[in-house]
Amino acid sequence: MDITNILFAGVGGQGILTSSRVLALAAVHAGLDVKMSEVHGMAQRGGNVDTHVRIGKEVPSSLIPEGAAHFLVSFEKLEALRYMHYLRPEGVAFVCPTEIHPLALNLRKDESYVKDIDKVLETSAPKLVWVDATEMAKEAGDLRMVNVILLGALSTRLPMGPEDWEAAIRERFSAKVQEACLASFKRGIQYVSAPV
After folding, report:
1. Which of 33, 88, 177, 181 is deepest in the core (most CB within 10 A)?
2. What secondary structure does DSSP assign to 65-119, as a single string?
3. What are the backbone angles phi and psi of residue 100, rounded to the nearest 5°?
4. Tens digit of pLDDT for each residue in 33-47?
5. pLDDT tens digits for 134-166?
6. What fold characterizes domain 3-193?
């Protein structure tokens, strides 16, 4: 039974749930079975959020076991570190290099963000792909596109075709932002497809 496990991680308000739903829709359009599970942190905005999405011919359950995720898509560095134990040794992590300092760190002056977090992440996930979706979204003039850019990057490793993704994006987003979403999705694809 071939199942692909994708874990999305970030903080509330970053579009993690929307991303997972677009992925699930694209998988359905491709004729795949999908199971999804959402976990919200203490706060809707600012609390940690993770979503498990499992796709395949037949998917028995929605939760990804630790060490079994093929892909980790993180919208923030600390959240990538928090969920790294879900990634299998040969798994790929797509990480946006954004840093959002948790409220607890802001209140305690004696603590700081994880030192050398980039190095820690790169050591933890040898197949880590940095995707500066925040910077790309700023260049495009719409910070709401971070999640769609990350989805574009992820899409290059999944079995769904361009038509499945376009159908999912058109189904999930309102008509007034669909073209911007499709353009941002393509930016994510081009970013990871460009020669280094």
Report:
1. 181
2. PTT-EEEEEESSHHHHHHHGGGEEEEEEEEE-------HHHHH-TT--SPTTHHH
3. -115, 110
4. 999 997 655 445 567
5. 999 999 899 999 999 999 999 999 999 999 999
6. Pyruvate-ferredoxin Oxidoreductase; domain 3 (3.40.920)
